[in-house]
């Protein structure tokens, strides 16, 4: 199988224990990576720095550490990392999630079989323990279905994404659309003719606490929705009617009480 790079960004609020679990889940893959890029997004805690140092020393030649002097946010940190990846295939990994042991093997096989430029897979959400999952997010499998789905919602699970470096560079990397940087990149890639695919079986456990749902509320969030959806309309990815309909629907969800919004996301928009 083709070599692949793993791309992870870490910032100071991460827990060292979660970071260790995330890294171990990559090192224990059935198909090993030969390059693990970690972007330190600003100064880290001593515990985080020491954890990363341990892995660098234990696995010489595998880890490449990129240090940013100040916190730049996930999108800009990932852009820095993508530019430094040596392999054409890049697998995203968040610093607090857990990849299933055969995630990379199955995704690499699917990428080759479907000639995909970008793919992800089903994720299982959990709060405290993977033994107690809270939700599952399964997405359309084939490219035609993915394109239609992307007109309303994000078509790939970012923590489980694998993409081709050349395709990402061609579509312009991650841009500044707060809370929608990843969704924007997916839509742009699909609009540029990239082929997408989603592995149906779960490939990753995603840590999803209360904060994930709280961030998706309020008037400021609505302004981010409007800016992003208008951009999709301007590039011709969605129609004016789709822009209006989805912006209104998302805005309503953003202003309902938190518990109602959590129910909508956790129960109605997940499986």
Order of helices and strands: EHEHEHEEHEEHEHHEHHHH
Name the structural class. alpha/beta
Write down the overall mean pLDDT.
93
> Biggest sheet, in brief?
9 strands, mixed
The H-level CATH homologous superfamily of the largest domain, spelled out, is Spore Coat Polysaccharide Biosynthesis Protein SpsA, Chain A
Describe the 3D structure.
- This protein is of the alpha/beta class and 271 residues long.
- The chain folds into two domains: 4-209, Spore Coat Polysaccharide Biosynthesis Protein SpsA, Chain A; 219-268, no CATH class.
- 44% of the residues lie in helices and 20% in strands.
- The protein is built from eleven helices and nine strands.
- The protein has helices spanning 16-27, 46-58, 74-84, 103-113, 143-150, 165-171, 181-191, 211-214, 219-234, 240-255, 258-268; strands spanning 4-10, 35-41, 63-68, 89-92, 98-99, 118-126, 133-137, 162-164, 196-207.
- Strands 1, 2, 3, 4, 5, 6, 7, 8 and 9 form a nine-stranded mixed sheet that branches.
- Helix 2 (46-58) links the parallel strand 2 (35-41) and strand 3.
- Helix 9 (219-234) runs antiparallel to helix 10.
- It is globular, with a radius of gyration of 18 Å.
- The two termini are 32 Å apart.
- The relative contact order is 0.13.
- The model has no long low-confidence stretch (mean pLDDT 93).
């Amino acid at each position: 199988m083709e070599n692949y790079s793993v791309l992870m960004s870490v910032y100071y609020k991460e827990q060292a224990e979660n970071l260790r679990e995330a890294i171990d889940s990559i090192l224990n893959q059935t198909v090993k990576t030969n390059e693990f890029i970690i972007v330190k997004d600003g100064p880290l805690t001593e515990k985080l720095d020491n954890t990363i140092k341990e892995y660098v020393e234990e696995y010489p030649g595998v880890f490449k550490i990129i240090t940013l002097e100040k916190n730049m946010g996930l999108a800009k940190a990932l852009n820095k990392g993508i530019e430094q990846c040596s392999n054409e295939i890049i697998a995203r990994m968040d610093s607090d999630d857990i990849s299933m042991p055969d995630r990379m093997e199955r995704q690499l096989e699917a990428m080759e079989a479907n000639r995909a430029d970008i793919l992800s897979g089903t994720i299982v959400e959990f709060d405290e323990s993977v033994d107690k999952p809270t939700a599952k997010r399964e997405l359309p499998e084939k490219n035609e279905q993915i394109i239609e789905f992307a007109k309303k919602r994000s078509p790939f699970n970012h923590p489980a994404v694998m993409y081709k470096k050349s395709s990402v560079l061609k579509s312009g990397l991650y841009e500044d659309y707060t809370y929608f940087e990843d969704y924007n990149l997916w839509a742009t890639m699909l609009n540029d003719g990239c082929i997408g695919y989603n592995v149906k079986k779960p490939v990753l456990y995603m840590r999803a606490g209360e904060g994930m749902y709280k961030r998706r509320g309020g008037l400021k969030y609505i302004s981010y929705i409007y800016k992003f959806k208008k951009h999709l309309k301007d590039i011709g990815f969605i129609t004016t009617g789709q822009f209006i309909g989805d912006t209104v629907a998302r805005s309503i969800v953003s202003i309902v009480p938190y518990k109602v919004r959590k129910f909508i996301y956790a129960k109605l928009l997940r499986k």
